[in-house]
Amino acid sequence: MSIKALARCLVMLLALLAPSAFAASLYSAPRYAAILIDNATGEVLYARRADETRYPASITKVMTLYVAFEEIAAGRLGLDDNIRISRHAYNQAPSKLGLRVGATISMRDAIGVMATKSANDIAVAVAEHISGSESAFSARMTATARRLGMMGSVFYNASGLPNPDHTTTARDIAILSRAMLRDFPDFYPAFSQAHYQYRGQAVANHNHLLRTMPGVDGIKTGFTNAAGFTLAASAVRDGRRLVAVVLGGPSRLGRDNNVEDLLSIGFDVLAARGQGQNFTVASRFAEPDDLPDAVMDVLAGDVAAIDGEVQQPVRAVQQVDVASAISTLGETGLSAPRLAGGGGGLPRR
């Protein structure tokens, strides 16, 4: 087989999906981890560093709300109950609602502003209302995580604000997201609102995919300097639901784009399976380290690298032309040592 034919076979194996210039910086980000799961079957369609320890940031509030929903279901907490703002809750760092010490908020409104604005002060107030203290509530969060099968998660607060021991994994966040969908379907729509009306004001949801990607209906974003940009998202298409989690994104837009790609490709793979085509999500991604050095050399001449710290929109340089690069490679030829030796003609892991 000629080099050019071999290269074109590679394109077919990669399902003709060209990598973006941003992809190289995203996948090489040291905190990056991701997973994609078929919600109905539990099948893991894609995983990358899914069991490595990460900081969840405000995705933590999915567990905070899960415990609160347990209390409501047990009849120990009502939607009209008033949650008082303590001095400890008031002193939480933003994002927060900013109610004064001694003020109250209904549990119904607390759910709304936690799911949308990700209010840290309200998360702490709810924790104190349920367990008496945030530390006691955090212990319950960890115990609940173990019961759900989240073996890599430890919670030290109700908000997700930085704590060196407050950790999770992408797989655990996917388990939690599926548990929320399974156990509290009546409360899950709280994560679906693009805005929540609180005292006449529209509180915007930080999950931009609710407004930009059809089918996405939840669930939670997060950001701290230590965690990077985090997002658990779920979407439905043709009666199938997928759950995607990305932790440690270097930018909000990069994180959102990556989750959107995971979900879109996941749905495409499920549709292809229905037609007898055996694709995988990983094969459709064509991640940078899946491409041989020779192909990457050609691509590098066409597209300037984008550093992981850059947070400008990147969709304008979204795709490089892999087919053209391989065509160029086929015309110029490839030396035998490069295919067989240290040049790395095979994908590296």
CATH class of the largest domain: Alpha Beta
Oligomer category: single chain
**How are helices and strands ordered from N to C?**
HHEEHEHEHHHHEEHEEEHHHHH
User: Judging by the overall fold, what is the CATH architecture of the largest domain?
Assistant: 3-Layer(aba) Sandwich
- Structural classification: alpha+beta
Spatial separation of the terminal alpha carbons? 25 Å
DSSP, total strands: 9
Outline type: globular
CATH homologous superfamily assignment of the largest domain:
DD-peptidase/beta-lactamase superfamily
The number of distinct helices, counting runs of at least 4 residues, comes to 14
Low-confidence region ranges: 7-22, 289-293, 295-349
User: Taking all residues together, what is the mean pLDDT?
Assistant: 81
Which key phrases capture this entry?
349 residues, alpha+beta, Beta-lactamase, 2 domains, two-stranded antiparallel ribbon, globular, disordered C terminus
Fold blueprint:
Blueprint: H1 3-13, H2 21-28, E1 33-38, E2 44-48, H3 60-73, E3 82-84, H4 87-90, E4 104-106, H5 107-116, H6 120-131, H7 134-148, H8 170-183, E5 195-198, E6 201-204, H9 209-212, E7 216-224, E8 228-237, E9 240-249, H10 252-274, H11 281-285, H12 293-300, H13 322-332, H14 336-340
Antiparallel strand pairs: 1-2, 1-9, 3-4, 5-6, 7-8, 8-9
Helix pairs in contact: 1-13, 3-6, 5-6, 6-7, 12-13
Structural description of this entry:
The chain has 349 residues and is an alpha+beta fold. The protein has 2 domains: 3-19 and 286-340, no CATH class; 24-283, DD-peptidase/beta-lactamase superfamily (Beta-lactamase, 3-Layer(aba) Sandwich), CATH 3.40.710.10. It is 41% helix and 15% strand. The chain has helices at 3-13, 21-28, 60-73, 87-90, 107-116, 120-131, 134-148, 170-183, 209-212, 252-274, 281-285, 293-300, 322-332, 336-340, and strands spanning 33-38, 44-48, 82-84, 104-106, 195-198, 201-204, 216-224, 228-237, 240-249. The strands form 3 sheets. It has a 5-stranded antiparallel beta sheet, with helices on both faces. A two-stranded antiparallel ribbon has the order 3-4. A two-stranded antiparallel sheet has the order 5-6. α3 (60-73) packs parallel to α6 and α5 crosses α6 (120-131). The chain starts with a helix and ends in a 9-residue tail after the last helix. Residues 7-22, 289-293 and 295-349 have low confidence and may be disordered.
